[in-house]
Design brief:
single chain, alpha+beta, Nuclear Transport Factor 2, Chain: A, globular
């Protein structure tokens, strides 16, 4: 199961975007859990919210195809730095739910050119219909992050994108086996 939620704690004193993947056993009991928690930022006027969007999965028969498209995109564009993969897999007017990068494919491409972004490894890809989530370790300007990408696809192209990232703590600070 995948969750992407907004949390407001202590009457709004702390606001977070949290993404989670839960794996359950045959009896429905949770046996593994991965999460990322990032500070929530109020969107600028006219900009998309970090969490809100169309979340009713459609095209359920396209789940495996869409997961394969996202995997290929992450390998080609984000691991192998094939700039053409962004053009092939991402709609020009992609809606980006990120307060930093901006809207559209060109803003995404510019961010990737201006920052050293390396998808070290893609750990999990899950999906339902037109929605696909990927959990990866990503290096951004030399800092390691646990990062969730959530994509919505139409006709084989990414048309909407959310992300949520958290710095991977040093191994000595981990209370369990880590983020992955």
């Amino acid at each position: 199961m995948f969750l992407h939620v907004y949390q407001s704690l202590n009457d709004g004193a702390a606001q977070w975007v949290t993404t989670d993947i839960f794996r359950s056993d045959a009896d429905g009991r949770i046996v593994e859990h991965w999460d990322v928690i990032e500070e929530y930022h109020e969107p600028a006027p006219g900009s998309p919210d970090q969490v809100l969007g169309a979340f009713e999965p459609r095209d359920l028969d396209q789940t495996e195809r869409n997961k394969a498209i996202v995997r290929r995109f992450l390998v080609d564009a984000m691991q192998n730095h094939d700039a053409g993969a962004l053009d092939r897999r991402v709609a020009e007017g992609v809606v980006r739910h990120d307060p930093v990068i901006g809207q559209g494919r060109d803003a995404w491409a510019r961010y990737l050119r201006e920052h050293d972004v390396i998808y070290d490894f893609v750990f999990k890809v899950v999906g339902s219909g037109d929605h696909v989530a990927a959990y990866s370790q990503v290096l951004i300007d030399g800092t390691a992050y646990a990062l969730f990408d959530l994509f919505r696809l139409e006709d084989g192209r990414i048309v909407e994108h959310w992300d949520n990232k958290e710095v991977v703590p040093p191994r000595a600070e981990l209370a369990n086996s880590g983020k992955f």
